[in-house]
UniProtKB/TrEMBL annotation:
It comes from Streptomyces yatensis. Keywords: Flavoprotein, Oxidoreductase. Pfam families: Pyr_redox_2. InterPro entries: FAD/NAD-bd_sf, FAD/NAD-binding_dom, Ferredoxin-NADP_redctase_2. It catalyses: [thioredoxin]-dithiol + NADP(+) = [thioredoxin]-disulfide + NADPH + H(+). Residues 17-300 form the FAD/NAD(P)-binding domain. It comes from the Bacteria. This is NAD(P)/FAD-dependent oxidoreductase. PANTHER family: THIOREDOXIN REDUCTASE 1-RELATED-RELATED (PTHR48105).
Amino acid sequence: MVAVEVVEVTDELKNTYDVVVIGGGAAGLSGALMLTRARRSVVVIDAGAPRNAPASGVHGLLAREGIGPGELVERGRAEVRGYGGQVVSGEVGAVTREEAGFQVALTDGRSVRARRLLLATGLVDELPDVAGLRSRWGRDVVHCPYCHGWEIRDQAIGVLGSGPLSVHQALLFRQWSDDVTFFSHTLPSPSGEEAEQLAARGIRVVDGEVASLEIVDDRLVGVRLTDGGVVKREALAVASRMVARTGLLSALGLRAVEHPSGAGEHIPSDATGRTEVPGVWAAGNVTDLSAQVGAAAAAGAAAAAQINADLIAEETRRAVAARVRGEVPFSPEMESRVCEAVLGDRRHGL
């Protein structure tokens, strides 16, 4: 006989959790898994808009190479729930500070309280305004050679000049194909050292603004310039401007700032994921714009360990204070119940 564990899936939120994880991608689910295994009460609130949804598969992830993004998320959710965590569909509208932690308000009117927060909301790719580009995003319009380079190897690849890293991007994609063309688009034509590097690697430079993509039978076949000329290409690399999803934390004073690379905006954090706002950690693309799925998952797990350590330090201080007063030390279960009761009293003005 095979024993089957039945895990109840519910969107009903409790009043208080040790940790609320905002964002249910690789970073958020990995952090939640680590915390639930540490016997913490955890809920993941996921708006269901993953950045990698257009991609056919996740690449460079050991033992899960090529897995579909949706399947990876579903497996992660099942693992978190298997250890007693919750994964709830919803969008966070605002987060406010309270004396004992945070209040997290969802846009549908629900709210929940947390002792700590793990921010894993990811980022949004802002793409150049070129006709046909967004509809091909994640297919034959790509951004990362490590995510997509193998899939477009030896093809005729174009690189659209769209930001400070575009020439670097062209040099990277040259590793996967000897037929790479750089379209300067709205950028000045490469000069000096950049021009020398492109020429040395055999990368053709085409000046002039790109107007649209040429699509035939649902495949990219070329890049059309504003002067009407068409350059045959089978794939196009674009360096998007990457902007962290952070508007919900404005009430805490936590705002995205320009990334040192010039590639977009992120939430700064230290090596452990700790942000400048006490009690808030960040993991994944919201703080590390270039993190792939594996790195995001690792960062989520590392931040979760630090959150658990921070909670243990707080609980230990309270236990020591209680011992000095001759009180019975709290167990973790008693600690959670007392926190919930205190927050409930404050909610009702007691």
